[in-house]
Amino acid sequence: MIKRLDKLIIRAFVGPFFATFLISLFVLVMQFFWLYIDDLVGKGLDLFTILKLIGYVAAFNVPMALPLALLLSSIMTFGNLGETFELVAIKSAGIPLVRFMRPLLLVTIGLSGIAFLFANNVIPVVNLKLNALKYDIIVTKPAFDIKEGVFYDKIDGFVIKIGKKEKDDSTIRNVIIYEKAYNLQDRMLVSESGIMRVTPDKKFLEFVLQNGWRYEENGPHNSLSTEFIRLGFKEYKKVMDLSSFKINKTEDSLFKYDPKMLSVRQLTISIDSLNKGFNIFYDRAKRETSAYLTFARFGDSSWKRFKFPVVKKAKSFDAFVADSISSQVTERAVSQINMITSNINQIAVDYSTKRQVLRKHWIEWNRKFTLSVGCLVLFMIGAPLGSIIRKGGLGMPLIFAIIFFVVFYILNTMGEKFAKEGVTSPGVGMWLSTFVLIPIGLFLTVKAMRDSQLFNKEAYFRIFKKLKKLAKKTKEEKLG
Question: Is 278 within the bounds of a domain?
Answer without folding.
Answer: no
